[in-house]
Amino acid sequence: MLDQVWGENYVGDLKVVDVNIRRIRRKIEDDPANPTYLCTEWGYGYIWKE
Fold first, then answer.
1. What whole-number distance in Å separates Cα of residue 2 and Cα of residue 17?
2. What is the pTM (predicted TM-score) of this model?
């Protein structure tokens, strides 16, 4: 995701995606600690589940 959004030459904190996902989860999830919509797929990234 980082390469797709900011490009391969991004020079910044690599945790920027994690921080933004956490902020989105706070807004859309009933319980952000146990997400049901925006879920983590280890080794792949994030997926949207309905």
1. 7
2. 0.72
The CATH number covering residue 43 comes to 1.10.10.10
Q: Which domain holds residue 20?
A: 2-48
Contacts of residue 11, Cβ cutoff 8 Å, sequence gap at least 6? none
Alpha-carbon span 10 to 27, nearest angstrom: 27
Cβ atoms of residues 1 and 45 within 8 Å: yes
pLDDT in tens, 1-50: 667 777 777 777 778 888 999 999 999 999 999 999 999 999 888 999 98
